[in-house]
Design goal:
single chain, mainly alpha, Tetracycline Repressor, domain 2, transcription, HTH-type_TetR-like_transc_reg, transcription regulation, HTH tetR-type domain-containing protein, DNA-binding
Length: 228
């Protein structure tokens, strides 16, 4: 399967960026070195600093590249209203596959904030377009944030997900099975709206009792025994 390449990918700057994505993913930000990145890219450490200034600047460039990549595929998905050919879904996963280790390590290190936040923004746009008959109980931004965290956790947990699926999730068979599973989960609620309403009510009452006002209003042990 081939994917479109950005013309910039042929430049020394792009080679340095891809080398950094590899080193940050394999070794973590702190252990990765400018010298090691330069050696993998086939350039001098001075050229790395010329293009990116510092290791932090290099990591920011890595995040910017991935944000642009995510945007590119998001635009393709949103532009397709017929859904007759969904090969671009596999293409997008194939394009992001070399960077999964980087994203997993960066997110676990508390970095890649711009990447996570931009995916939240895109998810928020998707959720805003959905026709939901019942009003959500949390703000749209909160829903988008949790949905993004859940989605990005799947590739981060690559080894565990692949073991559970019984097939490499990045293989064509695994990609198809994962896509079918996600569609099944998204299209079928795990609990009914009625069950959710009961649980939300209980959650709100529990949260109220945890506040100072709720503790003052709650009956004491003697009162509870007397009521019985």
């Amino acid at each position: 399967m081939t994917t479109e390449r950005d013309p910039e990918d042929l430049t020394a700057r792009a080679r340095i960026r891809d080398a950094a994505l590899f080193h940050f993913g394999e070794h973590g930000f702190e252990r990765a070195t400018i010298r090691g990145i330069a050696e993998t890219a086939g350039v001098s450490p001075g050229l790395v600093r010329h293009h990116f200034g510092s290791k932090q600047g290099l990591r920011e460039a890595c995040d910017e590249y991935l944000v642009a990549l995510v945007h590119r595929f998001n635009d393709r998905v949103r532009a397709d209203t017929s859904h007759t050919d969904m090969s671009y879904i596999q293409q997008s996963r194939a394009a992001l596959r070399p960077y999964q280790r980087y994203m997993a390590r960066a997110l676990s290190e508390g970095a890649a904030a711009s990447l996570f936040d931009e995916v939240v923004n895109l998810t928020e746009e998707w959720l805003a377009d959905l026709k939901r008959p019942d009003p959500p109980v949390v703000p749209l931004r909160v829903r988008a944030t949790i949905a993004t965290a859940m989605a990005m956790a799947v590739p981060i947990l690559y080894e565990h997900v692949s073991r559970g699926l019984g097939v490499d999730m990045f293989s064509p068979e695994g990609d198809l099975l994962l896509s079918r599973a996600l569609l099944d989960i998204y299209s079928h609620p795990l609990i009914s709206p009625e069950e959710a309403a009961v649980l939300l009510d209980a959650l709100d009452r529990t949260a109220h009792r945890a506040t100072p006002a709720g503790r003052e209003a709650a009956p004491g042990p003697d009162e509870e025994l007397h009521d019985e």
